[in-house]
Here is the input.
Amino acid sequence: MIISPDDQERIDAIEKALLARWPETRIAPSTERIAALVDILGSPQLTYPTIHVGGTNGKTTTARMIDSLLFAHGLRTGRFTSPHLETYLERISINGQPIDPKDLIFAYNDIAAYLELMDTKFEHPISFFEAITALGFVAFSEHPVDVAVIEVGMGGQWDATNVIDADVSVITPIGFDHMEYLGQTLHEIAATKAGIIKEGGFIVLAQQEPEAAKELIRRAAEVGADVVREGVEYSIASRAVAVGGQLLTIQGLNDTYDEIF
Here is the structure.
């Protein structure tokens, strides 16, 4: 991707402004600020269907596979993942590619004043992660996308991404992560991660430890969500290492999907 000097200067300035905010490592477990922000922005995250990807292991890989499968079926896709490797533009993807700098600049210009306004409304300002999450929501709305795949940053229940109303929630294998925030047992950690399961939604579960699975199934039953479990309703038929990733064949509910990268 070739970026003009003017666009690069603006992209760098936006990154500097985002990094000047509360860092991702400073956790304030609440969706109050992001909820207020997206509300004043007109709830862009509710203008397209969403798939929410949580869990502990393999979230980004799973989000990329879902994105690839949807795009292969002719859908215009958005994907929000974290962290990034080289540039923060990687966190917001359109049709499998990092967002065009001009589109990122346009979206940021739309939200910049509202970020500053929300900073004055709460004890703690809008964080880096909350700001870039809102930026992704707006970018996907402005294109617009047919569906967005949204990866949880940390946990689930109080993660900034959990202001979406996901049609499908995907939970990868849950392990012991961020225990200082999520809890000391798999039950406690799974309870927080289960917070992305929405009322009447559809949940896809990877294979889980029994303690985690029990909590996820309990939450699904509580909110009336339909559950699809790996090894029961669907399965990984084959897995092969490929350059830059892996190729999967998935036996789904109604069909077999070959060579998913």
Remarks:
- The chain has eight helices and eleven strands.
- Helices lie at 5-19, 32-40, 59-72, 101-119, 128-142, 179-182, 186-193, 210-223.
- The CA atoms of residues 77 and 95 lie 5 Å apart.
